[in-house]
Amino acid sequence: MKERFAVRYYWHLVTLSLVVLFVLLILHVAVGTVAISPGDVIAALFNQPVTPFQHIIVWDLRLPRALIAIIAGAMFGLAGAILQTIMRNPLAEPEMTGATSGAVLFAVLWLSQGPGQLAQPGMVLPFVALLGGLAGGGLVYLLSWQGRNAPGRLVLTGILISSVLRSGTSIILLLRQDAIGSILIWLIGSLDGRVWVHWNVIWPWALIALPLGLACASLANVLQLGEASATSLGLSVTWARLSLFFVAVLLTASAVAVVGGITFLGLIAPHIARRIVGTDARRLFLFSMVLGAGILLAADTVTQVISQPVTMPVGAALALLGVPFFLYLVWRRSS
Amino acid sequence: MNRHSDNSSTHKTVLAAQTLSVGYGVRLIIPELSLHITMGTITALVGPNGSGKSTILKALAHLVTPKTGAVYLDGRVIASMSTREVARQLAILPQGPVSPEELTVGELVEQGRYPHAGPLRMLREQDHAAITEALAETNMIELRHRRLDSLSGGERQRAWIALALAQATPVLLLDEPTTFLDVGHQLEVLTLIQQLNRTQGKTIVLVLHDLNQAARFADRIIVLQAGRIVADGLPKAVLTTALLSEVFQVQAHIISHPVDGFPVCLPYAVGEA
After folding, report:
1. What is the pLDDT of residues B144-173, one digit of tens each?
2. pLDDT value of residue B120
3. Which of A234, A253, A297, B30 has the fewest beta carbons under 10 Å from its own?
4. B6-100+169-239, what's its fold?
5. Which residue of B has its CA nearest to A3?
6. B98 at the A interface (CB within 8 A)?
């Protein structure tokens, strides 16, 4: 029996996916209230002469948004792949770390309490959200720790803590109904109005956390054989699980901090990736990143096209897609 | 492995437990136990359900930490060694291991090189050689790219044994390697284990349910009851009607196998004689 096709030609596949990603990027930049032809987009990107108006739209408005979609999508994808591996559960997703709801709660607290902050979320908000994400993730890990750390307990604690944090967010929303609109968009997750300022917040974290996650792939491979086998292979299971969990929290928190609480992407991307390239984390992690980036970019393009004149947040679109997909997974596993 | 003369290594103790007691919480499973495993031998641990066979095996592999006493691997206290050092000397195949979905045989066996991997955990030439050798010994080369969940029980067990072989350790512990296998695959797995002992001189300790298989494949049988050793020695000396009645509460007849003379127990009634 031959090696599976996608494994044999893995690097060809990755290269091809990157080309597709580039095409998606061009399409994403081309689409919007003012349509620009793909040719003009490419011309503008490579600093060929286009009208100044088009140049401003491409460089100052749409390119940063597309780049943020790519990087945030990659972070959600990798975080999901890491969590599914350490929890040995293909239905795990970044939300279960408590990082998403923690980041959202802190951000909403900041938005509703800081006077005058609502109009200009700007630079400070992402850091507040990141802090909340790390706090949420840390809380889940500490509470699930009882001498040792079973994946099952981690999942349960994560779900419970996330619900508590989310209800905290709801209470704030009820108390500050005047601010509900702008908070809600952020809570669902959206790429609207993301420009270079936001890009500057997300890329340093991506630069740290993405390579860190990829470097943990062989740890993850050993870990997914189960606690006894992993220990007998010389892996310190507790330490490995903690580091991978921390990387996933860092990825989730910093992505949520810039694009909001986008869910289901971290579930879908690694799941499709696993169908294509298999369970070996060295391939799965990288491919989940590429798929996550592609899905978020494509979803944002589509929502921009279909949601004129009222903008639909991309997080809502992904949740609409994600829920049936999740049900399909549950159904497939049980049948 | 051994730098000294072969004569001294024939009776060398490679793995030992000294006044070991093991328990979970307040429940004591092994009250106090000492044993020595000789290099290059096959030892079978047998005993009724709940007699502490698996727990002893886990303690010997340092998967559980003893309450008191110590385990010595090659003369060193195992608790003082790093998990990676232990993993280069000793491999353990847990009972009924569960593999992640969609993992292939080759990908599983590759993980056996983890304790040997160099910087960046890249596989080097000697790693690929060890993987291929492990697959060849277990007759899994053809199945290398198959998914584990598509294999039969016997093939899957061979894949896990290949993982332990790729680890290239002088000591190999196996917890009921024949559970859930039909009689043909049971013999196949045990014959493979015996071959590894004979051709590579691996020291093997395995937990077995079937007394006749223990008698056939082990050099030494250790019988456990309630966490204590009640009999220890050559299969012929250990397997007696008195022992079967006392430890397993069965009345049995013991005969020599008509083909090759190994002891065979034939239980015929429950209860002490």
Report:
1. 999 888 888 888 888 999 999 999 999 999
2. 63
3. A234
4. Rossmann fold (3.40.50)
5. B145
6. yes
- The answer to whether the Cβ–Cβ distance between A225 and B99 falls below 8 Å is yes
Confidence of residue B2 (pLDDT cuts 50, 70, 90): very low
Q: What string of DSSP letters covers A167-205?
A: HHHHHHHHHTGGGHHHHHHHHH---TT--HHHHHHHHHH
Q: Which residues pair with B30 in a beta bridge?
A: B22
State the CB neighbour count (10 A cutoff) for residue A290: 23
**Is there a cis peptide before residue A115, judged by omega within 30 degrees of 0?**
no
Beta carbon pairs, A and B, within 8 Å: 79
Name the H helices within B90-206.
105-110, 125-137, 153-166, 183-200
Query: Hey, where are the domains in chain B?
Result: 6-100+169-239, 241-273
Q: At residue A208, what is the residue type?
A: I
This complex has an ipTM of 0.82
Domain layout of chain A by residue ranges: 5-334
Length of chain B (residues): 273
User: Helix (H, G, I), strand (E, B), or coil: what is residue B230?
Assistant: strand
Asked whether the beta carbons of residue B87 and residue A4 sit closer than 8 angstroms, the reply is: no
CA distance A327 to A192: 29
pTM of the model: 0.85
Instruction: Write the residue in B98, B101, B110 that is nearest to A226 by C-beta.
Output: B98
DSSP letter (8 states) at residue A74? H
Rounded to an integer, what distance in angstroms lies between the CA atom of residue A87 and that of residue A284?
A: 15
Strand duo B250-256 + B228-233: pairing: unpaired
Tokens linked to B186: 């049971």
Specify the DSSP element, H or E, that contains A290.
Answer: helix A281-306
For A5-334, which CATH superfamily applies?
A: ABC transporter involved in vitamin B12 uptake, BtuC (1.10.3470.10)
- What SS3 string covers B96-123? CCCCCCCCEHHHHHHHHHHHHCCHHHCC
Closest CA to B73 of B59, B98, B90: B90
Asked if A225's CB is within 8 angstroms of B97's CB, the reply is: yes
Token pair recorded at residue B18: 């000294």
Query: Which two three-digit tokens encode residue B35?
Result: 């044993």
Closest chain A residue to the Cα of B99, Cα to Cα: A225
pLDDT beneath 50, residues of chain A: 116-119
Q: What is the pLDDT of residue A118?
A: 45
- CA dist A329 and A239 (Å) reads 31
Q: What is the pLDDT of residues B128-140, one digit of tens each?
A: 899 999 999 888 9
Give burial (CB, 10 Å; 0-12/13-18/19+) of A160: middle
Q: Do the strands B68-73 and B228-233 form a parallel or antiparallel pair, or are they unpaired?
A: unpaired
Between CA A5 and CA A15 the distance in angstroms is 15
- What contacts B214, CB < 8 A, 6 or more positions away? B44, B46, B208, B221, B235
Phi, then psi, of A176 in degrees rounded to 5: -120, 65
